[in-house]
């Protein structure tokens, strides 16, 4: 009977776990739809903004803006957009592999999401700062991050700034992606402008005020919203990966419950057979 009690206890435990993973799957599914919608809308906005800047190519090449300045001296700053919570499959581990493959160990690192902090420290990476964000991305919450990056770059502490994040492809696929943030280069603008279908259509621009004044206003806007877009991509990837992971965990729990139930029935059948044999043997002994 002890064996049967253990099996029943395991079945109950796995069933409770499956209820938890099912609830987490539903929550992640609701959050994923919202995060996916924001990420896709942000792509359209960034594509349009990059096309406006691309139209100012002559001004970009001649303008003296610190956000466009190419430098040879200084350290590199790497921004790693991870998660604050786990239970999202191999999302963070794949991101860590990309960091170790593509980023120098002597660079400074900023993490948005604390899940990879200990792993980066163990791998010899220097954490200059770490920030945590909730499920919603608000500009007020991102202001300390913007100020930290802009101050370090304008003052010459860093020669370039790159961002590594999980790019949202679809619900099942998220890929680690490394993108340049600063300095803002013409090729990067063209890459962002071509992200959305129909972005190559010719558009007539009427510029007011002068291109240089317009450029100095749009560049900080572009820099800030580009980082926001990368964070939104990471949030959409996180919720998608968590929903898929919880769905897989729920299905595995159901399969395990089926296997344990079969094992319980076999053990119960064996026990009944043994009891019948004992009764039959006792009856024959009494004849």
Task: Note the topology.
Elements: H1 2-55, H2 57-62, E1 75-81, H3 91-102, E2 108-112, H4 117-122, E3 126-131, H5 139-154, E4 158-168, E5 174-182, H6 186-193, H7 211-286
Parallel strand pairs: 1-2, 1-4, 2-3
Antiparallel strand pairs: 4-5
Mind explaining what this structure looks like?
With 287 residues, this protein is of the alpha/beta class. The protein contains seven helices and five strands. The chain has a five-stranded mixed beta sheet with strand order 3-2-1-4-5.
Kindly summarize this structure in a few lines:
It is built from seven helices and five strands; from the N terminus they run ααβαβαβαββαα. By secondary structure, it is of the alpha/beta class.
Based on Cα principal axes, name the global outline.
elongated
Query: Which band does the percent of strand residues land in?
Result: 5-15%
Low-confidence stretches: none
- What is the CATH topology? Pyruvate Kinase, Chain: A, domain 1
Walk across the major sheet and give the strand order. 3-2-1-4-5
Question: Judging by the overall fold, what is the CATH architecture?
Answer: 3-Layer(aba) Sandwich
Helix fraction bin: 55-70%
């Amino acid at each position: 009977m002890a064996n049967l009690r253990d099996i029943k206890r395991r079945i109950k435990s796995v069933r409770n776990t499956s209820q938890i993973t099912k609830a987490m799957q539903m929550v992640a599914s609701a959050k994923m739809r919202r995060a996916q919608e924001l990420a896709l809308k942000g792509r359209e906005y960034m594509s349009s903004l990059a096309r406006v800047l691309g139209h100012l190519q002559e001004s970009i090449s001649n303008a003296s803006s610190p956000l466009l300045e190419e430098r040879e001296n200084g350290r590199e700053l790497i921004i790693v957009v991870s998660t604050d919570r786990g239970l999202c499959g191999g999302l963070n581990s794949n991101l860590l592999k990309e960091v170790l493959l593509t980023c120098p160990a002597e660079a400074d690192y900023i993490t948005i999401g604390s899940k990879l902090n200990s792993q980066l420290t163990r791998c010899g990476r220097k954490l200059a700062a770490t920030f945590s964000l909730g499920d919603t991305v608000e500009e007020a919450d991102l202001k300390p991050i913007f100020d930290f990056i802009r101050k370090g770059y304008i003052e010459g502490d860093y020669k370039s700034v790159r961002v590594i994040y999980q790019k949202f492809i679809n619900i099942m696929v998220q890929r680690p992606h490394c993108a340049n943030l600063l300095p803002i280069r013409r090729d990067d603008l063209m890459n962002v402008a071509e992200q959305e279908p129909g972005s190559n259509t010719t558009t007539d621009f009427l510029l007011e005020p002068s291109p240089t004044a317009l450029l100095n206003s749009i560049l900080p806007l572009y820099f800030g919203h580009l980082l926001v877009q990368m964070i939104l991509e990471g949030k959409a990837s996180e919720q998608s990966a968590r929903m898929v992971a919880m769905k897989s965990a729920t299905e595995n729990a159901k399969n395990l419950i089926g296997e344990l139930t079969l094992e319980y029935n076999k053990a119960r059948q064996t026990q009944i057979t043994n009891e019948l044999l004992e009764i039959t043997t006792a009856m024959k002994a009494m004849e």
